[in-house]
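Example record for the data management plan.
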Amino acid sequence: MQQWIFLSIAIVSEVIATTSLKASEGFSRLWPSLIVVIGYSIALCFLSLTLKTIPVGVVYAIWSGAGIALVALVAWIFLGQSLDLPAIMGLLLIVAGVAVLNIFSKTVSN
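Corresponding structural encoding:
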């Protein structure tokens, strides 16, 4: 269970860092830039801890898939970016792929 907590922390940290990139304005603003650096540092640290028990391909698929969907959701809610029907459908397919990987793959339980 601990590896899933680590992976969740890595995903949330990466989403915070990625969405802070816009506010950093090319690393010209101090506080958003620090959030980016700290967020990615935390994300990579917890990602590496996750890799001790879950295979890298599975971890990366979940990390990137969940990250893509969450960044798009955060950008839609907080940054006013629009999502059209094809974008929503694509994001739902990514989420479905992550769910299938977690529910049905025997590789994940290693």
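Summary line stored alongside the record: The mean pLDDT is 93.
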